[in-house]
Amino acid sequence: MTTRTVGFDLDQTLVDSTERIVESFRSAFHTMRIADVQPTAFTPWFGYPLEEILQRVAPGTDPAEFVPLYRRAYDEERPGEAGPMPGARDALEWLRDNGFRTVVVSAKHHPVVDVALVDAGLRDLVDAYYGDHFGEQKAIPLREEDAASYVGDHVADMHAASLAGVLGIAVVSGAHDTRALREAGAVSVIPNLAALPATIERLLD
């Protein structure tokens, strides 16, 4: 690891925003008089762009009508919890205390990344953040920030890490298991962020 910048995905990696995402979807659906969708329907699609999740759980729904309603719910009403994932704050504090920069690169709408980090109590530990980047697009800011590694829970995160030429560190806190994350290019798979400091130290060696 030649630089001191570590990149992170947001949802289900640093922030547990499951409840807020689901409740914001359901709020918008209620306004649009769309039949309710069970929370389990969302699970496989966390980490994808908003419009793609919408088509997966409610095919044919007009995104032009849905998105403003969702944004109002998520940004202003803030239904449900959006807290830190286990070990997130301790891991970020360790990185700060050991001279690392931290950068968040997320598929979430750019202004909402800040909302999520603030509500999770992590914004003070993040040096920079980028929204509106999914899959291979995440490689662009990772290169610009000269990141050494990227931590995420999604196979697309590992693909982005490989494309950017950085080390992919996967957390099994999302929809993908160890095997899928390894096959996607993860150099290390950890159970939660409490294991990140030791992993970073090992990779430095």
From TrEMBL:
Keywords (A to Z) from UniProt: Hydrolase
Picking any one GO molecular function of the record gives:
hydrolase activity
Give a Pfam family name: HAD_2
Concerning InterPro entries, the annotation shows: HAD-like_hydrolase_sf (IPR050155), HAD-like_sf (IPR036412), HAD_2 (IPR041492), HAD_sf (IPR023214), PGP-like_dom2 (IPR023198)
In Swiss-Prot or TrEMBL terms, this protein is called: HAD family hydrolase
Q: Which organism is it from?
A: Arsenicicoccus bolidensis
